[in-house]
Design goal:
Elements lengths: L8 E4 L5 H12 L3 E6 L3 H13 L3 E6 L5 H15 L6 E4 L15 H29 L2 E6 L3 H4 L5 H21 L4 E8 L12 H8 L10 H12 L10 E4 L8
Parallel strand pairs: 1-2, 1-4, 2-3, 4-5, 5-6, 6-7
Length: about 250
């Protein structure tokens, strides 16, 4: 495989499992050295590292709470020191927490804040931490992982939908602000991609969803990972401020 990300250092938050694992693997397959961030699942993170190493890539597992400014600084510093190089070149804001569903009546401001902490605060802290190095190099790629729920507006899910919607505006504002420094900011909005958190979901639910998708099948984690890897590469050097829906045509561009 071509190595368009050779000599690049990438940080993937929530990289121990789910979409984050496959994003980390896709970046490594294309030559990036990847810091696999995890909060609790060290065993899963180390397995992601082993998968990358078995494929001939370089990676390191780094534990950090991405909602903590102090730990985010540690994550970025540790990624650079462990993997070599002068700074982080690619940041993937993928980490997430619980995604409970509540009616409007049952919702509280704290429930909304729980989602905003993961999808607004954490990306802000991480982006601030990598910006000095990116600005110095006058290059870099920041990828936010959004969701098709922004367009679908799933009921009883407003806290999550609101937080993911905020990522869209944040992406576009950052792209405009950071473009003069050669830093690109994009968002990938997955559809429903079954991963570990969906174990136990009834087959009928998967079938019902896939019937609404124009391509008539569920996506796979590597579909999202490939889109992220493309946007991180120089092949996408003239693409910024965009929200790419990767969901088999279930929605159109935001």
């Amino acid at each position: 495989m071509n190595k368009p990300l050779h000599n690049k250092i990438a940080v993937v938050t929530g990289g121990s499992r789910g979409l984050g694992r496959w994003i980390a693997l896709a970046l490594a397959e294309r030559g990036a050295s990847v810091a696999v961030n995890f909060a609790h699942s060290e065993g899963d993170a180390l397995e992601t590292v082993r998968m990358i190493e078995r494929a001939g890539g370089r990676a390191a597992a780094v534990q950090a709470d991405v909602t903590s400014e102090e730990e985010v600084e540690y994550l970025v510093d540790e990624a650079v020191q462990t993997l070599g190089g002068s700074s982080v070149d690619i940041l993937v804001n993928n980490a997430t927490g619980p995604q409970p569903m509540y009616s409007i009546e049952a919702s509280t401001w704290d429930i909304y804040l729980d989602q905003l902490v993961f999808f607004v605060k954490a990306p802000l802290l991480l982006t601030k931490a990598v910006l000095p190095g990116m600005k110095s190099k006058r290059s870099g790629s920041i990828l936010n992982i959004g969701s098709e729920v922004v367009q679908l507006g799933n009921p009883n899910f407003s806290s999550y939908v609101t937080a993911k919607s905020a990522m869209v505006g944040m992406t576009r504002s950052w792209a405009n602000e950071l473009g003069p420094y050669g830093i690109r900011v994009n968002l990938v909005a997955p559809g429903w991609i079954p991963v570990e958190r969906h174990e136990g979901v009834h087959a009928a639910a998967l079938e019902s969803y896939s019937e609404t998708v124009p391509l008539r099948h569920m996506g796979e984690p590597m579909d999202i990972a490939a889109a992220v890897a493309f946007l991180a590469s120089e092949e996408a050097k003239f693409i910024t401020g965009q929200c790419l829906s990767v969901n088999g045509g279930n929605t159109f561009g935001i």
